[in-house]
Amino acid sequence: MKQTLTIILLTCFFIKALAQQTQVVRGTVIDKETAMPLPGVNVKLITDTVHKQSTVTDAYGRFRMENIPLGKQSLRFTFIGYENKITDIIVTSAKEVILTIEMEESTQQLEEAVVTAMQRGELNNEMATVSARTFSVEETERYAGSRGDPARMASNFAGVQGADDSRNDIVVRGNSPLAVVYRLEGIDIPNPNHFAVAGSAGGPVSILNNKVMGNSDFFTGAFPAEYGNSISAVFDIKLRNGNNEKHEFTGQFGFLGTELTAEGPINKQKHSSYLGVYRYSTLSIFKAIGISLGTDAVPQYQDLTFKLNFPGKKNSNFSVFAISGMSGIAIKISEQIKPATDFYGDDDRDQYFNTRMAVVGTSYTKIINEKSLLKFTIATSHEQQKSLHNFVARHLAPDTTWIIDSIYQLQAYRFIMNKIPMAFNINTKINKHHVIKYGFNAEGIYFNFLDSALNYAHTAFRLRWDYRGFGTLIQPYIQWKYKPNDKWTFNTGMHAQYFSVSNSVSLFEPRVGVKYTINNKQSLNFGAGIHSQTQPYYTYFYHLTDSAKQKIYHNRNMDFTKSAHLVLGYDRAFNATTRMKLETYYQHLYNIPVTIRPSAFSMTNMGSGFARFFPDSLQNTGTGTNYGVELTLEKFFNKSFFFLFTASLYDAKYKGSDGIERNTDYNGNYIVNFLSGKEFKIKEKNILAFGLKVTTAGGRRYGYVDTAASNFQRELVWLDEGYNTRQFRPYFRLDFKINYKINAKKVSHEIALDLVNVLNTKNILTLSYSPNPFGTGENFSENYQLGFLPLFYYRIDF
Q1: Which pLDDT score, from 0 to 100, does residue 553 have?
Q2: Which one of 48, 349, 732, 737 is CB 3.0 to 4.6 Å from 691, fit for a cystine?
Q3: pLDDT at residue 585, as a whole number
Q4: Chunked in runs of 10, what are the mean pLDDT values of the chain (798 residues)?
Q5: Which helix (H) or strand (E) holds 39?
Q6: Where does residue 267 rank: exposed (0-12), middle (13-18), buried (19+ CB within 10 A)?
Q7: What residues pair up with 739 in beta bridges, in sequence order?
Q8: Contact 167, 609 (CB under 8 A)
Q9: How many C-beta atoms lie closer than 10 Å to residue 286's C-beta?
Q10: 164 within 8 A of 176, measured Cβ to Cβ
């Protein structure tokens, strides 16, 4: 009887918990250019036609709406003299929805501006006109196969693709992944990935966490003048503010990490807030509690991101933010008993690799007057890579087991860079037609590089890096937005750049963007610009030793790599949620470092994988050409369904110092993505969602192996003749995602399974040097991309 009563009570409690719930939606509406609060803005919930809720912003631009139904909702913001705006939100039972809405002043004196469907996917940066799209966390976290990684999410955009399934390097329009710059809260940051190799922009696991990200911008070319030191792409990341009225928490356990997110008010009266997320490697937890993973080479990593926000008096705001991560792995082949054909890493050494990255900064914004906004950000950053390789001399016993003869140090390095980055700008809206933004970005950089290795004969150590010094990178800019009417928008600007290490100067980098709005559904866009970028910093200090044993930094005078962009685009909105975007582009690259001696080498092919580059004597005489056409067909998430189709046809060529035009390493010629998702309501409040992704792309380029040189150096060496004239078979991958969300009273649960490469397709990545321990056959093997990988997570919000 007691058991029956208990079951009845629990059932009643569960039914009550799953009863229809509602949530609070609130936020602030500001002017897009000046960040001035806009009082009197009408806010209307347009998806709930029964209750027809609406409100008006107060004197501080704030609004609050209660009893909003759970699920996908849309809000319309209208204000006389401003263009109307529609924003889509996802409402859950556990967390309040907090918005910052930016509205743009209309150039026409209208009682109420026309709502345009083109506003879906609108960019944060009002100076961008082409080759840019907003990175919406709410939209992109639905992408199957993305693993919660912002870089992998961005690889689904037109003109963007991954370089390696095991890493999140991204190739934009055939350019090296090195050309991608990450910016956080207005300053450039070090590579935000675990196990990041010096001079790269990617890694296996991202330190960035989408749970604390706000809507950000991703640029693929011809970006505005405020962005520099990149010839390809910029990922401009914003951190959102925490809830300043209510404490909220998220716990998540999954294959890629166990994490906790917390946010809430610091002082409710002053509207200050905190937001933070900490993650620890789940595999490390398994190993620590004694669960066997089949290998001791378990990647260990942890990361932390937080933001503290303090609104001040007289329209000012002060915030403190940080992002940090540390990682390490030990790959011990000395513990190998029998020869392995699929061992991860080089098969003749034990490897120990550790990385650290941290950025801590503060940002101050001040509305000077109703027309001008000032922002200043200063931070300190640290990045470090440490590696130790011990050579394992061994031979095979008659029973084909390994016998260790000796273990001795083969090479070790420690690369450290400490920076003090800062950014300052003033945004002034002279009137509704003219907006001027000017400022600068600057970095003071301390270098500490040390590296030594045994020679090929293993008879003596050679010092390859030994440098400690300081350098500066300074980037001033000015840009002007002119909007004579609601049809035409002109964005022009000038960027300059100076790097003290090489004494490189680029004074004249003009940027221009033009947008012509044909009607409320169509627009034409044009962009052009000159861009420049430093080389990977460690390459400036690789040294030779002369007869007097003096260090010669023979590449310290390398100049910027430069690029000229031309882009023409057409946008078409079919309705409020579906659009098409077509862009064609041409990019000329010059000043690319190539070897002085005639060869096929070019720095444009560097930047992916886990290997560093050991530069020969280089000069800035290389060139390259990228051109192509890109199509995006997208239905934003609406009525429980979304899809994204992107297709890119492109060609990427370069010339080394031998003057021969070749395919770049990243010239696959085409890439096609199709993503789709569908949600089903269960019992009116719970959600069952499915996601699908299909990707196909041209195979990686390769050439012919120099067998003698490869055997001598014990690593793969390519012949110049025929380099990149061959191509692996096309890449294909199918991903599938399923998740179920339960909206209980004040708590939501989510269980998800992300199935990467469902068909276990064997996509070839590259060839590698792999000497056969039995002394038969070739000493080369094919390396494959990631096979079938099932990833799971459980998430609770409360």
Answers
A1: 87
A2: 737
A3: 97
A4: 43 42 86 85 81 83 86 85 83 84 74 42 68 78 85 90 87 91 94 92 91 88 92 93 92 91 94 95 77 70 96 91 95 79 64 95 93 94 95 83 87 95 94 93 96 86 92 97 92 96 96 93 94 96 71 90 96 90 96 95 88 88 96 88 94 96 95 93 86 94 86 80 93 94 87 93 84 62 85 91
A5: none
A6: exposed
A7: 689, 752
A8: yes
A9: 14
A10: no
**Nearest Cα residue to 357 out of 201, 129, 171, 573:** 201
What are the phi and psi torsion angles at 10 (to 5°)?
-65, -40
- Three-class SS state of 397: coil
Collapse the DSSP code of 360 into the 3-class scheme (helix H, G, I; strand E, B; otherwise coil) and give the result: strand
Residue 553 CA to residue 466 CA, distance in Å, equals: 10
Determine the residue type at 148. G
Length of the chain: 798
Q: Helix-strand-coil percent breakdown of the chain, rounded to 5?
A: 5, 55, 35
Distance of alpha carbon 170 from alpha carbon 156, whole angstroms: 10
* Residue 183 CB contacts under 8 Å (≥ 6 apart), including other chains: 189, 227, 234, 235, 236, 237
Interior angle at CA 189, CA 202 and CA 605, nearest 5: 40
Alpha-carbon gap, residue 355 to 659, rounded angstroms: 38
Tell me whether residue 50 is exposed, middle or buried, using C-beta atoms within 10 angstroms of its C-beta: 0 to 12, 13 to 18, 19 or more.
exposed
Q: Looking at 104-148, which runs of residues are DSSP E strands?
A: 132-135
Report d(CA 221, CA 198) in Å as an integer: 24
- Tell me the sheet residues that pair with 412: 388, 452
Evaluate whether 509 touches 532 at the Cβ level (below 8 Å): yes
732's CB contacts (< 8 A; 6+ apart) are 695, 696, 761, 763
SS3 (DSSP) at 600: coil
Question: Which of helix, strand or coil describes residue 670?
Answer: strand
Structure tokens at 53: 């809720």
DSSP-derived secondary structure letter, 4: H
What region does 164 belong to: left with phi over 0, alpha with psi -120 to 50, or beta?
A: beta
d(CA 298, CA 281): 9
- Report the distance separating Cα 514 and Cα 493, nearest Å: 12
CA distance 717 to 156: 32
Rounded to an integer, what distance in angstroms lies between the CA atom of residue 669 and that of residue 361?
41
- Residue pair 103/82 in contact (Cβ under 8 Å)? The answer is yes
Pairing of strands 85-91, 686-697: unpaired
For residue 271, give the nearest of 98, 35, 41 by alpha carbon.
98
Helix (H) or strand (E) holding 710, with range, is helix 707-713
